[in-house]
Each structure stands twice: as structure tokens, then as C-alpha cells.
């Protein structure tokens, strides 16, 4: 018996599990202290009423013989895939509902999609970025090269012809920096990928936070992307589904490599290893994209945007450098007076009870920076900003 030796190359634990453990240890040491959690990007507002009533209705259907459903269609129910297709139309992207695969979230699909690719591929990953891309490829033993994201390039690295990448990760709006590519910038990535025969894995989990014209909501806004890109998205941040679980992945019919069709490969993979998302959750997800649902989820997104504005205003007042917060729920700041973001994490927790995420946890280039999430509730954000003012003002 041989274990997967690649696991030896992983960090001891997943970033957010690590942070959660540190916070739990602090809470048990100081039970009287208030902890203001702005670390993991977990939503705090409840599900939209339209989503809740659709799930209630679906639960009742499951309780009646006449309307009960067992296994659903493997790619997801047509009513949900059509709702997602129609959502894409609102920003000018025209997909076929059959190109959409419903899943339990973007994170799982981002890891699972690697089943389609050989272990010998070189993977290009921005640094800093969502740690799942690095960890899942490390588990598979792939060679990883990094695209440096930094203040000089606005945390938006562009393709480098000297780098020979086969699989390219793009997360826009970016987790953790909040930087978002324009459609024009993405065009350069699509051209690079098509020239090389590479595949782009595009994480659009935060697309609903894009507020500026010209910035991309989907990679398929770029011509030629259907020939080189797979897009991952989720209801987690758009509709508050972090605890409800539903996402979707778009694998265009036109995506082929080495004579194999990646859409058919993904269908084959999913039908073998995945049995779909519950009917009740899919009904709720579809209701999020109904006209009432869209109106309600937009109200929640506006509340998170207001939180981001509050954080940015506090940092402006303190003259602390930051970016993000405009097209993203994340504010990415320079640790004031600290070059070690983990030391800053400890300091902020000890002194102010404020929890954020150390930039170093997202990659080497994240060192010296810190991420605050606007998904916390409004009162927490207000209190945390006050604490920052007391500490650094
Ligand atoms: C984050 O905090 O980066 C996200 O919540 C992680 C995730 O979406 O899995």
C-alpha cells in the first residue's frame, strides 16, 4: 500500500481551518472578549424570502407521493440550468443550458475538474489567490508556476509568453485582493491560452459584486473563450448559499483538447462520481434568479457593498493603503507597521478582537497584506472599524 506522497507537500492544514482554530483558542482563553469576525468570506444575511418559500414548497412536494422525486437529472434540473442561462443573458453571455452543470459549489468543482487533466501539466496560478488552486494541484503532484500579483500590476498579472503553462487559473473579482479584470485584459489571457492550447479555469464566484462598466462578469464575454475556458460560479456569495450549497460550472461544447471533448469528459466524470444537488436546494437556487429573488439578493449584495464602503472609509481616515472593496466583498490592506501578516493577525486579534485573514496565507506575494471581508454583519463592521481607529488613529 502506498499513500499519495504529494500530501507531504501540503501545509499542515487548510488556511481557513487554521484561522478558525486560532480564533477558537482565543475565545476559550478570553471568554469575556467580543470577537469581531471578518476573516472567512462567509455570508451573514439570511436567504432571500423567494428562495425560502421555493424550498418550503419543494420540501412539501417531496412529502407527497404524487410529486415526490428521487434521483434528479445528472447535470441538474432543466428549470435551474435554464434560470442560470437566463441570468448570463443579463450580462450579454449566451450559453446553452446543456453547457451548464449544477453542483454543490464552486470549491468542489474547482478541485474535481482536475480529474480531466494529466498530472504532467504545468499549472499557472496567480499569487496571491484562493488557496484551493494550489492545494488541489499539490495533492495531484502537478508542477505549479506562479504569476505575481502585486501593487505594480494592480494585483492583475497579465500573460507572459516566456511561461509555458497548460492550465491557467484566473479568479476575478479576485479572492483575496478584490482586483477585477476588464474584458479587454481577459482577452489577452484568452488569446494566450488559445495560442498555447492551454485551458483556463475561471473562478467567477464574486461576479455579482462587479459594479464598474468594462469589468468582466464572465470569461465568455471574450470571443474565443469557449474554445479554452471552463467557468465556475456559485450561489454562495451571490445568494447567500454558503450553508445551503449550490454552484454551477460551464463547460462549453466547443472545448476540445487532444481530440477529446472536455464537455463530454466532465459529463462522464460527474455522472460517475456525483449524484447531483437536492431538488429542494435546486428549487431555492432557481428562485434566487426569479425576478423577486434577484431583487432580494441584490438588496443583500448592496448591504455587503455598504459594509465594504465603511471599511474603506475607515482605512482612508487612517491613511492605511488598501485596494478592493469596490467590485468585491474583500478589502485588501497593507498591514500597518507589520511586514508579517500572521503577526498582524495575532496583534489585531489580541488588541482589538478583530479577525481578518493574513495575506501570507494566500501566497508569498500576499505577505505584508491583510484581507477583511464585508460579508460580516453591519454592526460587526462598524465596531471593527471603530477598533481599528482606536488602535491606529
Ligand atoms: C474565503 O474566505 O476565501 C471563502 O469563503 C472561501 C470559500 O469560498 O471557500
What does this structure look like?
By secondary structure, the protein is α/β, with parallel strands linked by helices. It contains twelve helices and 15 strands. It has two domains: 5-47 and 294-392, Aspartate Aminotransferase, domain 1 (Alpha-Beta Complex), CATH 3.90.1150.10; 49-292, 3-Layer(aba) Sandwich (Aspartate Aminotransferase, domain 2). Helices cover 39% and strands 15% of the residues. The strands form four sheets. It has a seven-stranded mixed beta sheet with strand order 2-8-7-6-5-3-4, with helices on both faces. Strands 11-12-15-14 form a four-stranded antiparallel beta sheet. α6 links the parallel β5 and β6. Bound molecules: D-malate. Residues 16, 40-42, 107, 130, 175 line the site of D-malate (MLT).
Query: Globular, elongated, flat, extended or rod-shaped: what is the shape?
Result: globular
Our count of helices gives 12
The third-level CATH topology of the largest domain is Aspartate Aminotransferase, domain 2
How far apart are the first and last residues' alpha carbons, in Å? 59 Å
The Rg value, from CA coordinates, equals 21 Å
DSSP strand content: 15-25%
Domain unit count: 2
CATH class of the largest domain: Alpha Beta
Q: Short summary of the structure?
A:
The chain has 393 residues and is α/β, with parallel strands linked by helices.
Keywords, separated by commas or semicolons:
393 residues; single chain; binds D-malate; Aspartate Aminotransferase, domain 1; 7-stranded mixed beta sheet; 4-stranded antiparallel beta sheet; globular; Aspartate Aminotransferase, domain 2; 2 domains
Amino acid at each position: 500500500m502506498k499513500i499519495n506522497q504529494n500530501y507531504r507537500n501540503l501545509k499542515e492544514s487548510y488556511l481557513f481551518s487554521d484561522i478558525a482554530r486560532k480564533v477558537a483558542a482565543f475565545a476559550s482563553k478570553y471568554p469575556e472578549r467580543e470577537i469581531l469576525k471578518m476573516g472567512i468570506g462567509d455570508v451573514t444575511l439570511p436567504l432571500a424570502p423567494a428562495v425560502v418559500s421555493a424550498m418550503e414548497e419543494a420540501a412539501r412536494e417531496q412529502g407527497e407521493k404524487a410529486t415526490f422525486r428521487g434521483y434528479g437529472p445528472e447535470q441538474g434540473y432543466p428549470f435551474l440550468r435554464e434560470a442560470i442561462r437566463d441570468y448570463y443573458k443579463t450580462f450579454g453571455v449566451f450559453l446553452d443550458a446543456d453547457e451548464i452543470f449544477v453542483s454543490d459549489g464552486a470549491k468542489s468543482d474547482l478541485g474535481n475538474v482536475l480529474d480531466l487533466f494529466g498530472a504532467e501539466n504545468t499549472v499557472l496560478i496567480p499569487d496571491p489567490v484562493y488557496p484551493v488552486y494550489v492545494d488541489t494541484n499539490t495533492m495531484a503532484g502537478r508542477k505549479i508556476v506562479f504569476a505575481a500579483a502585486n501593487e505594480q500590476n494592480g494585483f492583475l498579472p497579465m500573460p507572459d509568453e516566456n511561461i509555458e503553462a497548460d492550465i491557467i487559473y484566473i479568479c476575478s473579482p479576485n479572492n483575496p485582493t478584490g482586483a477585477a479584470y476588464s474584458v479587454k485584459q481577459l482577452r489577452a489571457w484568452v488569446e494566450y491560452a488559445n495560442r498555447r492550447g492551454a485551458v483556463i479555469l475561471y473562478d467567477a464566484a464574486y461576479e455579482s459584486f462587479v459594479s464598474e462598466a468594462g469589468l468582466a462578469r464572465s470569461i465568455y464575454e471574450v470571443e474565443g473563450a469557449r474554445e479554452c475556458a471552463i467557468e465556475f460560479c456559485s450561489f454562495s456569495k451571490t445568494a447567500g448559499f454558503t450553508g445551503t450549497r449550490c454552484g454551477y460550472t460551464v463547460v462549453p461544447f466547443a472545448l476540445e483538447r487532444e481530440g477529446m471533448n472536455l464537455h463530454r469528459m466532465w459529463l462522464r466524470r460527474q455522472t460517475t462520481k456525483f449524484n447531483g444537488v437536492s431538488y429542494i436546494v435546486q428549487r431555492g437556487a432557481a428562485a434566487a434568479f426569479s425576478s423577486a429573488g434577484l431583487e432580494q439578493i441584490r438588496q443583500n449584495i448592496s448591504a455587503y457593498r455598504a459594509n465594504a464602503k465603511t471599511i474603506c472609509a475607515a482605512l482612508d481616515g487612517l491613511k492605511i493603503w488598501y485596494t478592493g472593496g469596490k467590485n468585491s466583498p474583500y478589502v485588501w490592506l497593507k498591514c500597518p507597521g507589520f511586514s508579517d501578516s500572521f503577526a498582524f493577525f495575532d496583534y489585531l486579534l489580541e488588541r482589538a478582537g478583530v479577525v481578518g485573514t493574513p495575506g501570507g496565507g494566500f501566497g508569498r506575494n500576499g505577505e505584508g497584506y491583510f484581507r477583511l471581508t464585508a460579508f460580516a454583519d453591519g454592526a460587526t463592521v462598524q465596531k471593527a472599524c471603530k477598533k481599528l481607529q482606536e488602535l491606529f488613529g
